[in-house]
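User: structure tokens for this one?
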Amino acid sequence: MDAEARIREYYDALEAGAPLGRFLADSSDVVKFGISERLVGGDAVRQGLREQTQRTADWDVDSRALRVIGRDCHAWFSDKIVLSWRDVESGTRHTFETRWSGALEARDDSKPVFVGMHVSTATPF
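Assistant:
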């Protein structure tokens, strides 16, 4: 399982404005904390990510401290990211110094999927 490659693929998809649902496990126990929300369950997480993609553009994911530890079919990670995007309605650009952590699981010989993700920030950058 190459969890680091999968995490970087997620970052690239976020920057490209590509759909992100494929990166999350399709189960009711998945949890994603974002800067301003808590989403529980695969359906809620995918819906939240779709809405985020519709409301935002021009993402920049500047990873500065990615650490990944993997064991068999599980991995966990942490990162420090300067994260920025533009709100498509107002045109306002948002930039935050964020902290990310999460867990991935490889299921059915497929690419690993996130089973938990947490993004937080202390203050705007």
